[in-house]
């Protein structure tokens, strides 16, 4: 089931997996391509349901892995590719890292995020500081420097003092899948997925909360109040999305 209205709630996908090798380093990968129904093949982007739909697809899969619940054919194929082809039990994954395709991540950023979560078991979600890569290219990018500094540095740094960052950016964020002590689901809990997978986005409030892929942190904060959502200013991704 996809995020959408009417017939758009039905979607199809293809799963590819393998090992990516670069300079002696081997990284396993899994790619899910949403291809859409036969009636969509003439469209420009068949199967496209937005970023939130892709997030829910992965979160629902990990939720069913955690609870060992029945899976749909796409999820069964994903489980097969991860477990049998890549050779990793999906239940062993501890974190979910979300990054945009137009975000350049520094080499040590992910390690620092994981280290911060390992040192503090109450952290349920954490993000790094986001900055512009082409900040001196045009007058528009120069203006954006101030907006990014205020929204991605000052505001989040202040909220992080109390462990309650209200909005973790979708371009560079990592979530803990389960609590460190008792193994209870966090980002993959039934409540978070149910609230985040609302199909009928009919109000401005819902559109601001859900359509911009920033609602997971808010959902997690409301449903798991004992958790902590922090910002780590040390790992700094560089986002080059300004024109």
TrEMBL record:
Main localisation: membrane
The EC number on file is: 2.4.1.16
The name of this protein is chitin synthase
InterPro entries this protein is in? Chitin_synth, Nucleotide-diphossugar_trans
Membrane topology designation = Multi-pass membrane protein
Catalytic activity, as annotated: [(1->4)-N-acetyl-beta-D-glucosaminyl](n) + UDP-N-acetyl-alpha-D-glucosamine = [(1->4)-N-acetyl-beta-D-glucosaminyl](n+1) + UDP + H(+)
**UniProt KW keywords:** Cell membrane, Glycoprotein, Glycosyltransferase, Membrane, Transferase, Transmembrane, Transmembrane helix
Q: Which GO terms describe its biological process?
A: chitin biosynthetic process; fungal-type cell wall organization
Record's GO cellular component, any one? plasma membrane
Query: Annotated Gene Ontology MF terms?
Result: chitin synthase activity
> Where would you find this protein in the cell?
Cell membrane
A single Pfam family, by name?
Chitin_synth_2
């Amino acid at each position: 089931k996809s995020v959408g209205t009417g017939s758009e709630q039905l979607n199809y996908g293809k799963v590819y997996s393998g090992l990516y090798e670069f300079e002696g380093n081997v990284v396993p990968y899994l790619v899910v391509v949403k291809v859409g129904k036969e009636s969509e093949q003439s469209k420009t982007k068949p199967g496209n349901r937005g970023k939130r739909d892709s997030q829910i697809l992965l979160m629902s899969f990990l939720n069913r892995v955690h609870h060992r619940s029945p899976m749909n054919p796409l999820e069964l194929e994903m489980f097969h590719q991860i477990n049998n082809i890549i050779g990793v039990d999906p239940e062993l994954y501890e974190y979910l890292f979300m990054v945009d395709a137009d975000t350049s991540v520094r080499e040590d950023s992910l390690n620092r995020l994981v280290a911060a979560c390992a040192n503090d078991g109450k952290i349920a979600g954490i993000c790094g500081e986001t900055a512009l890569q082409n900040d001196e290219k045009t007058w528009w990018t120069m203006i954006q420097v101030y907006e990014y500094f205020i929204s991605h540095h000052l505001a989040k740094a202040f909220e992080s003092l109390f462990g309650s960052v209200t909005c973790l950016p979708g371009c560079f964020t990592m979530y803990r899948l389960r609590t460190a002590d008792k193994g209870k689901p966090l980002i993959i809990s039934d409540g978070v997925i149910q609230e985040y997978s609302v199909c009928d986005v009919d109000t401005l409030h819902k559109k601001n909360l859900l359509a911009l892929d920033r609602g997971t942190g808010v959902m997690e904060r409301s449903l798991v109040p004992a958790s902590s959502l922090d910002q780590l200013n040390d790992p700094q991704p560089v986002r080059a999305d300004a024109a």
